Amino acid sequence: MKGSSESVEKFLRALFSRKIVVFCGAVVILFIITAFFAPYIAPYDPDYADFAAFLEGPSKTHLLGTDSYGRDVLSRIVYGTRVSLIIGVLAVIIACVIGTFFGMVAGYFGGIVDDIITRLTEAVRAIPQVVLAMALTAVFGSGIRNLAVILGISSMAGYIRMMRGQVLSIKESDYVMAAKLQGNSNFQIMFRHILPNSISPIIVMMTQQVGSTILSEAGLSFLGLGISAPTASWGSMVSEGRVFLLQNPVFALTPGICVAVLVICLNMFGDGIRDALDPRLRGEL
Amino acid sequence: MEHLLELKNIQTEFKTDGKRVRAVDGVSMYLDEGEIIGIVGESGSGKSVTMMSMLQLISSPGRVTGGEVYLKGEQENVLNYGSDSEEIRRIRGGKISMIFQEPMTSLNPVLTIGYQIQENIMEHLNLSKEEARKQTIEMLKMVNIPDAEQRFHYYPQQFSGGMRQRIMIAMAMSSHPTILVADEATTALDVTTQSQLLEMIRDIAKKTGTAVIIVTHNLGIVARFAERIYVMYSGGVMEMAHAEDLFSHPEHPYTRALLRAIPRLDDPKERVLIPIEGLPPNPAERPEYCPFYDRCEYRMDKCKKEIKPDLKEIRKDHFAACLLTEEEKKQKKREIDEKEVKKAPLRKAYKENCLEVSNIKKYFPIYKGIMRKKVGEVKAIEDITFFLKKGETLGIVGESGCGKTTVARCLMRVYEPESGTILFKGREITHLKDRELKKIRPKIAMIFQDPFSSLDPRQTAESIVGESLKLNGAVKTKEEYHTKVDELFRLVGLDPSLKGRVPHEFSGGQRQRIGIARALSSNPDIIICDEPISALDVSIQAQIINLLEELQAKLGISYLFIAHDLAVVKHISDRILVMYLGRIMEIAECDELYNNTLHPYTKALLSAVPVADPVVEAGRKRVPIRGEVPSLTKRPIGCPFQDRCEHAKEKCREAVPPLRDTGGGHFVACFLYE
Hints:
The complex is a heterodimer. Chain A is mostly helical. Chain A has twelve helices and no strands. Chain A is elongated. By secondary structure, chain B is of the alpha/beta class. In chain B, 45% of the residues are buried. The longest helix of chain B is centred in the N-terminal third of the chain and has 18 residues, at 191-208. In chain B, strands 5-6-7-3-8-9-11-10 form an eight-stranded mixed beta sheet, with helices on both faces. In chain B, strands 17-18-19-14-20-21-23-22 form an eight-stranded mixed beta sheet, sandwiched between helices. Classes of the chains: A mainly alpha, B alpha/beta.
């Protein structure tokens, strides 16, 4: 967006003016770096099982101890970050792209197109997300890619509804009428005029959804429906460690803490972005 | 003599973006018992904020930083009371009542109107419930609400906008206030309703001895209703005088410039509007010197050297805040008068018709229930027949709901009319499909009312203006595109170097210029202007009107000028079409329509528009009009105007009068002229 560098600057200034948002952003970035450089950060191969040293407590050789197969917990957490973030981001992108498109089409064309899309969305929403994800995993099987697609599809409904609402109000505005009178085609109007003007709540929703998707992934993995062994995932680690909570509490607790910290920080950061984008909350009016 | 209300040096600040903005900067005014005063000013001049400051209604991030308010009967400065104290609440709504602009939002929708008024009476007058109820009904009768006893139990949404504003007045008057503040109370209403309401406020005020403060941007309203007028600009009072004196001998250069910039209903056709150049200063960066300096034609070097002048008495009861002496002003006035006034641009009249519309109708279906069954139709427009010559301006006037916009949308083929024909340059376009329309679309352009919502906030000015050039393949190369865009910018008086900016970085007037440039970009034959200036401040309106006239002279475009402001329409149009409830009432040339008005509705409409001159106002004949514009679904049988017309006969209630030529192109739809 040329010419709006001033508003971008305003947005950034508003975003960074709150300490808690900056802190949460920093934590999120730390997790991203961890995920990216996992092979360099992790002290051991996450899948290497040292049967001589299972369920050990924290020590100099194993900072967070080892699990029931003698694998290094810290390394597994580091690699688990990767899984969580990839699934979180990928699922949100899938949901956002498809959801935004269908929401826009439904809102813009209205009538029967709208009826079909909204009814289908409502049908999907009526099924609890976990149940839906379970059903889809049963059909498509697990694995990082499948899990991302499944979580994406099951959270798409929110984007469709939000985008549809946005479009319904924007398509009545004078500038859309003006664009029509200039001879723009429907798709030109949708992508050139409506999409750029309705995207900011979607962006906010995306940042907030990454957190909840990570949580869903952890939940599914905990239930044994997500990432299958031996790939390290926070959810499955909690599930495995739960049995040995008395012998080695660090094993189950640390991945749980990681999920909590990352999700909280992502949500706070998402709230920060929302507040910074909204001039009313920024105290400008 | 002690005044009823006196404000002294009120200062109010708002904090935005860390900057302190002085919205009201040292305003002093007074009000005597039973007097009606007017406060006029453009948006942002601080008129409403002054009133809110007086009642301590300013909330964070705003703050009243200084000043005194004395009200008769109060021992001390009212501003010393806490903003939530017992004392100030007794004054608010008790001694001083206020009516706001939006009748839609100022009544609580979940309580009956009777209950709301009754509660107000019980609170302020300490009456029993039964007595309060009686008074409420009396109040409703006073504001001419029919069947007051039954309407007591109605909810606000069961009333029309005008009725709701009457209820607001009843509520405001119910506590027997000594002062009534009407803050743009009639701005959102139709002209006929507006004049009915203001006349009613005046009558009630005179009967009860209540003093009234009318806050408005409309000079005509204060000329008609106010006895004494304060002119505000950029947070300060520029001039104060009695109404007649102010309009006949304006002293402050701002007032003088303003009166030269606004069109009046009684203007001769050749009148040229002289716009005030520039923009009001941004209140955050207002200079220390006179705030009007940068736009003032009378400015002298000394104005910039000294701080903002205070009000001083020029002659008895006439104050102005200007540093210039009488002699200096006379001298400057002579210079200004000698300066050549740009003549009204000469427009060529063509013979051929650009647009011919005959008998078009547009009905909108009403659906009900879950099955969305069609239960009826709203007959938005019926039997619309008119023509538009090349290079001509046809004004369309009418109150809200009369179908002006529907007609415009049918012509642009956003809607497809149910029947009738539209001929554009001899070609039938009534039922063309989208693909064929694409070729016609660029030839009929549009300028919108709201310069804020009609420009895509994410596009740069350049791509807004240039979009249609690209879409319609009007330019071949990049260089050609850029030269063409620059040319369009210059044509509407904008600096092409601003083209990389986005709409919110422009002022309202500049945005409207971008809208005009966009309309011109496809080289159209007709531009439909839908209320193009009603969202702009008075001092900017003249600039846009003049620009439109110049462009027409230069390019020979036809305009269809839709507006509710009759004075503006009369100024810019060659012919005027008057609509009421979806039908044409009268079509005539401008002067003919004004001097030889035929239709009773047009007469009432013209009479309702106030003229910014108290002397002329006093001499004008009033044509009273009863009731309000009914909703389209309740259109009376026969002539749509029959239930409000004093000449209505049996025949009018049975048949719809046809549009007849009475000679000289003066068409009227009324049985009186058969």
